Amino acid sequence: MKSNFLGDRAQAAIFRAPDGDLVEQEQVWRLLARCESRDEALRLICDLAEETVPGAVAGVTIAQGNGSHIATGVFPRLPQSFSDALRLLPMTPPFIGPCAQAICKGEIVTSTEISTETRFDAAWRGRCLGVGVASLQVVPVFAPEHRGALGTFVMAFWEPHELASWKPSVMTPLAHWTRMVL
To answer: C-alpha distances in angstroms, 66 versus 8, 62, 91?
Structure first.
C-alpha cells in the first residue's frame, strides 16, 4: 500500500475549470494522497492544470530553506535542462526571472510576452523562448507557519497572453494545492 504523504489535509471545496466543469477539491486530495513523493504530487498538479487550461504548460519552483536561492523546479512538459537551470538561482534584485521576484517580493508576476520582456535577465528570456514558452504567470506559494514563500506555481503558454486572460479562479486553487504539497 502506498503511503499517504499528505496526511489528513483534505478539505471540501469546489474548483471551477475554465470549461465550466466543477471539480471537487476532495477528488484532487484523493489523487494527491496516492502519490508516494512530493515530486509525484507536484507533477499531478501540473497535469491537472494542463488538462484544465488548454495549451498551458505548468510547473513549480521550490525555494531553498533559507530563502536565498531557488532549490529546484518541476516542469514535467519541458526538458529537464530547463528545471536544472533553475537550481541555485539567486532570489535577490535584480531578479533573474519572475519566479525569483515572486518568491522574494511575495507577489504575482506576469510576463505577457517574454520576447519583449525587459525586467529580467536575457539568458532567462532565451531559455524560456528556447523551449517555446512565450508568456507566463507566477504565483508565490505561502504556508502560514513558514516565513516567506515556499516556492511558486507557474502557468506558461506557447503564445503571448494579455494580462486580462490570466484567471485567478484557476491559479488560486492550483497554488493552494501546491502549498499543501510543499
So the answer is: 27, 11, 11
Closest CA relative to residue 156, chosen from 179, 138, 178: 138
Closest CA to 174 of 60, 55, 64, 9: 60
CA distance 117 to 114: 5
State how far the Cα of 148 lies from the Cα of 103, in Å rounded to an integer: 7
Query: For 20-60, how does the pLDDT look when each residue is reduced to its tens digit (9 = 90+)?
Result: 555 566 677 777 888 889 999 999 899 888 888 888 999 99
Evaluate whether 153 touches 141 at the Cβ level (below 8 Å).
yes
Which residues are within 8 A (CB) of 103 and not within 5 positions of it... i.e. 6 or more apart?
61, 63, 67, 70, 91, 140, 148, 149, 151, 152
Backbone φ and ψ of 15, nearest 5°: -120, 125
Q: Is 85 left (phi over 0), alpha (psi -120 to 50) or beta?
A: alpha
* Residue showing cell 528545471: 83
Helix (H) or strand (E) holding 153: strand 149-157
Sort strands 109-111 and 56-63 into parallel, antiparallel or unpaired.
Answer: unpaired
Q: Comparing C-alpha atoms, which of 27, 31, 56 is closest to residue 41?
A: 31
State if pTM tops 0.85.
Answer: no
State pLDDT tens for residues 119-163.
999 999 999 999 999 999 999 998 777 777 899 999 999 999 988
